[in-house]
Write a structure and sequence with these properties.
With about 240 residues, the protein is of the alpha+beta class. It has 2 domains: about 10-45; about 50-215, no CATH class. It has helices spanning about 15-45, 75-80, 150-155, 190-195; strands at about 50-55, 60-70, 85-95, 105-115, 120-130, 140-145, 160-165, 175-185, 205-215. The strands form 2 sheets. Strands 6-5-4-3-8-9 form a 6-stranded antiparallel sheet.
Length: about 240
């Protein structure tokens, strides 16, 4: 009687362990590279509020803020080609109502135009009260020229003593909520750019902030100190 013997070859355990270890090392390195690239991409162009202050004075409510961000390469390249960028700051104050949706009591909007002048090689910042595309014959409240882009961005990113409401528009006996937003307005770009940049993160420069206002507190209006830490004079609530 003949006997059939089946022989199965196995890797030595040490060799198999080495292969598995190399495989996981390569996977971790690849994952780290991808996460690093994502982190770098998210950091460029991301905006954040580094300073924030709301004061209620005798004649109204004033907002001071610093929105910190860096322009991405594509945005800066468009500026150097003569395409202006429009940034919009908007502050809405709502009356909170438990029985119905909140009612908007006031609205304040400011448009900041940043442009490069090829002939003079200088940067120009124009600040408008309101939305440029919705107001006919709108005149800038401030026009300023700068030698460098960082100097111009410094003016774009800072809101100092911006009056966002009159006291007569706000009921001191009712709770109010302030909603603030700052963003790059893509609707102001030339039509071909609007089609190409929709949804691209390189053009997404925006930040939002919500907080409850204490309308019973009246204090003198003070200017924003650029060197101070984040300061909030109203009671701050995190976004839910």
């Amino acid at each position: 009687m003949s006997t059939t013997v089946f022989i199965t070859h196995f890797f030595k355990s040490t060799t198999l362990d080495a292969v598995v270890r190399r495989f996981f090392v390569h996977c971790l390195c690849g994952l780290g590279f991808v996460l690093g690239q994502m982190s770098m991409s998210a950091a460029v162009g991301a905006a954040e509020l580094t300073q924030w202050k709301v004061d209620r004075a005798e004649d109204g409510v004033y907002l001071s803020a610093v929105v910190q961000f860096e322009l991405t390469a594509v945005v800066e390249d468009a500026l150097l080609k003569g395409i202006p960028m429009f940034f919009v700051a908007e502050a809405d104050i709502y009356q909170t109502r438990w029985y119905w949706v909140d009612r908007r009591a006031t609205n304040a909007t400011r448009t900041i135009r940043l442009a490069f002048q090829p002939l003079t090689r200088r940067w120009r910042v124009n600040i408008f009260s309101g939305l440029v595309n919705n107001t006919a014959g709108l005149r800038a409240t401030l026009n300023q020229n700068y030698d460098t882009l960082p100097e111009a961005l410094y003016a774009v990113q800072r809101l100092s003593r911006w009056k966002i409401a009159d006291n007569t528009d706000l009921d001191p006996d009712i709770t109010h909520q302030l909603e603030f937003g700052f963003s790059l307005d893509l609707s102001q770009l030339p039509r071909p750019f609007q089609i190409g940049v929709a949804g691209q993160k390189d053009w997404n420069i925006s930040v939002r902030q919500n907080e409850r206002l204490q309308m019973g507190v009246v204090r003198p209006v003070s200017s924003l100190n650029d060197k101070s830490k984040l300061s909030v004079s109203a009671t701050k609530e995190a976004d839910k």
